Amino acid sequence: MNIAVFASHGGSDLQAIIDGCKSKRIGANVSVVISNNGSSMALQRANNEGIPSYHLSAKKFGSEELLAEEILKILSKYQIDMIFLTGYMRMLHISILEKYNNRIFNIHPALLPKFGGKGMYGMNVHTAVIEAKEKETGVTIHRVSPEYDSGEIVAQATVPVLENDTPEQLGARVLEKEHEFLVEVIADIVSGKITLG
């Protein structure tokens, strides 16, 4: 199975997926990496691993439609079966969502449906969780739909919120959980335990 990973920044989740494939815990390959940020660490990580990578943004192509066409061409070239969004900070165009319906997944650093939606990413999420005095938070993997963070939830894992947590401390624990959980869930998708619909 060929996986495309979309990432905008550090790419540590991408690295976890690559390592999971290399160790054979995931019976698939990361075949291409796409980022909307030319200086993202994700592109660097892909280069280090010899994985084809592309910096694609609407700025470069002049419109969302032309950007989507280019993305679809690349996904087709690498015969992509599944797309994983790991901290990808853009909505995907409807043409991509339709073509890969039920095969696009996102990882979110909270227990959806709480703390999801526009603006809920990174430290914003962990700050909101602490301010709401939640006892636990976690990681959600869900299918991607046209609305932010509203697609079908396929798996969740919990992380406790400790009494004196700062957003940074909580974020670090959630990220650690993300890395192992991602590998487990992708392995389940590849093995058919979680269907591609």
Please give a structural write-up:
The structure is a single chain. By secondary structure, the chain is α/β, with parallel strands linked by helices. The chain has one domain (about 1-190): Rossmann fold. Helices cover about 40% and strands about 20% of the residues. It has 7 helices and 7 strands. It has helices at about 10-20, 40-50, 60, 65-75, 95-100, 120-130, 165-190; strands at about 1-5, 30-35, 55, 80-85, 105-110, 135-145, 155-160. Strands 3-2-1-4-5-6-7 form a 7-stranded mixed β-sheet, with helices on both faces. Helix 1 (about 10-20) packs parallel to helix 2, helix 1 (about 10-20) packs parallel to helix 7 and helix 6 (about 120-130) crosses helix 7 (about 165-190). The longest helix is centred in the C-terminal third of the chain and has 25 residues, at about 165-190.
User: What is the CATH class name?
Assistant: Alpha Beta
**Inertia-based shape:** globular
User: Major β-sheet, in short?
Assistant: 7 strands, mixed
Number of helices: 7
CATH evolutionary superfamily? Formyl transferase, N-terminal domain
The number of strands is 7
What is the N-to-C order of secondary-structure elements (H for helix, E for strand)? EHEHEHHEHEHEEH
Ranges where pLDDT stays below 50 over 5 or more residues in a row are: none
Q: CATH architecture, please?
A: 3-Layer(aba) Sandwich
Q: How confident is the prediction overall: mean pLDDT?
A: 95
- Kindly identify the CATH topology: Rossmann fold
Q: Percent range for helical residues?
A: 40-55%
Q: How far do the termini sit from each other?
A: 15 Å
Broad structural category:
alpha/beta
Q: How much of the polypeptide forms β-strand, as a percent range?
A: 15-25%
Strand order in the largest sheet: 3-2-1-4-5-6-7
Counted up, domains total: 1
Radius of gyration: 16 Å
